[in-house]
Design brief:
heterodimer, A: alpha/beta, Rossmann fold, 7-stranded mixed sheet, globular, B: alpha/beta, Arc Repressor Mutant, subunit A, 4 domains, 5-stranded mixed sheet, two-stranded antiparallel ribbon, 26 helices, elongated
Amino acid sequence: MGTTYAFASLAGSTGKTTTVVTLGTQLALAGLKVRIVDLDSQANASTWLGYEDTHGKTIAEILRGEATVADVELPGRVIDGVDDLEQPIFGEIDNLSLVPARRATLDKIMIELSAQQGGVLRLRRALADAEPVDVTLIDCPGTMSTLVVTGVLATSISENDTNPGAWGVISCTKPAYKESRGIPDLESQLHVLRDTYRMELPLLAIIPCVVPPENAGRVYLDQMEDLRNVYGNLVTPGIRRSGIVDEAFVNATPLPLYGYRARPVSEDYLAVKDYLAESLGLFCLRTVAA
Amino acid sequence: MTANGSSTVNKRPTRTGGRKTASKLSRYAGGSESADLLEEAKNRSHAGGGITAGLASIAAADGQRFIEAPTSAIAPHPFNDPIRSAPQPDSARWIELVNSVRAAGVQVPILLASRAAFVRARPSLEGEIGPAALYVIIYGHRRRAAAAAAGLDTIPAVIDDAVLIGGGDLDAMTIENLAREDLTELQQAEMFSHYSEAGLGQRAIADKLGIHQSTVSRRLKLLLLTAEVLEAVEHGTIKSTEAAELASNLPYGAPRAWQQETDPDQRSDERRADQLAAYKLVVSGSTPKRAAERVLAERRARQRAAMQGLEIVDPRVRFGPDFQQYAITSPAAVDGDVVAAVDPLQGGLVYYPAAVAPACDTIPQPDVEQSDAGLLKLRTAAMKARRAACPHLVAAPPARDKLLPLLAVQFATGLTALASSPTGWKLAYEFSRAAGLSSAEHPDVASYRTAATNETELKRHLEIAWACAVAGYELHAADKGRAAWNHVDATYLQLLQDRANYLPTSWERQRLDSPETASAQDGLR
């Protein structure tokens, strides 16, 4: 069976979307079938994967029960250049698909989901009915809402006895107290959800993103130290702060495909990917190889 | 070094290892065994338990207010069908809901707007929510009614006044109701008309709710039906598509904002009567369009008779079962007074000389009519009457599963030879043309036959086959060489009566009374 992870942090701009798109692309390049689900009403993951303004059905229709994953799913795209009319030419990213969102359409859904029984379980049901993939990465919004609950509950479709790393929540944070204090809050929410829905919903890993260079200030070193002291081996290697991330986003190209200037950040993510797979047992890479 | 920077640093207490910030981060300490901590987590979200706790904390995080609202202070939304807010002791789903509420309370919070916000958004509806109401329901009318029935003092609710912005309460209610699929078509029509009164066109309504425009149009038309027809729609006596078409041909009721053009007669009692009459025709098998035409034709016929000063009579009562033989083509065709009757099939006027002997005189003298010349006349009159009805029969083919046995009998009894004879094709062509079938849109019977040979669509094949079958029946029945009719003719006359409102003449009825046809008719019924 596949693996499913929700990326959540009860703080904004912690690198969730960057991590989802970059890890997703790297896993796809490594030959795994990857599905990225954009649950964020800002729709940044959709923009990054080539669908800045999608007109078709989106995750919103899935959450309303009006569409299946197959109706909505699109191949991940990357801009290969522009044509004579300055219109972008898109190439598809093999093995990578996207369940897109359109900006602003998800805000209304939050209310509808809370008012309808079982509303927060619709994504889980839709993913269960969808064509299976190796890895599903769900990009959740940065404040607690029904959408985060929806994303977190959906990971349990990959629940199984033999591989405890096959499903759960991955948090992103910055080495700063404003962001990392969201992690205990997230744990508390997971606890209530576990008890309410009787599902095992583990916090699997914490990825420190936007890590400043060592000479940027003692406070960042302190905060990284605190994070590692409190969460131990859940904390992965850090991702460096780099302007190339924003540049690649504007140009709608995932970091691993953005060229040599993105290599350092991309390599940070490769280290994270290896840590997640080898030290924490995520993505079931070992069972795939065997 | 700036003055600012150095002063900040200097104020901080010196820490071992050169730390400049205190370590404040600590893990959430709950474990699955830690009941106290779980209780604390739930209390933090101001809720009672279960799913409610989870969703309540979410609602709070979204900036909505979550409360236990007093059941008595909640008013239904005036746009919502009152039936949904009333107890429905006959409904199994209702009883199930009340029982579950009694056992476990309301599990999923309902959505409310505050009175102040509601009155601000919809000032004209203030009178309808009652003085005691502090909140108005957006979602959850049935849950509130169930909570009241179960005697609950309060019900968990999310208060979100933002839902009222831009008429969003209507959106929220409609989308939720449409998605649940338990609104009747009439209830949907009422919802759509609220939008229409808010100034939205049918296309805009369709786009807003993500349904097809023709659905919106069909539903809205239901609002132009009389109470009797609406009741028939709710009971399934008439299909709602037929009812909508009826309303579009014969609208009744106050003019509506969404009507592209209003009908000057749509408020009159005459229209009400016409719609009911047409409804009865539809129920007995007519299409709504033809029923409306028939009813309007009758009204025009009666007006014309009134203008001409003619009495309208029931010809069967006045002239006896053979009334058709007395019919004249125009009032000028005979000297003396003329009366009129309404043609039951077309709704037009049929004229009769008033001076013809009344029915009671003709009935006791059947033997006088049995002369050869008399019989021939009756036979010819019957054939003419049947052939006038044949286009209706051709236009109303039976369902495919019923068509097959009929065609099989035609093959087995050799009627197909008649049907595919030149006369058969000619009749089929004439009937189809008179019925306005698209398959007969050809200048003459030869090109009709050629086109039929080259036809590839099953639908057209069926249309043509049925027209030929009717022609076969008719030629068979009209065959002068046959002394008596048989079961095939009985089938034909039954089809004419069922599908073309045909009334057999008394001569035909006599022929049908022969022993071999009677058994066939029993079999048909």
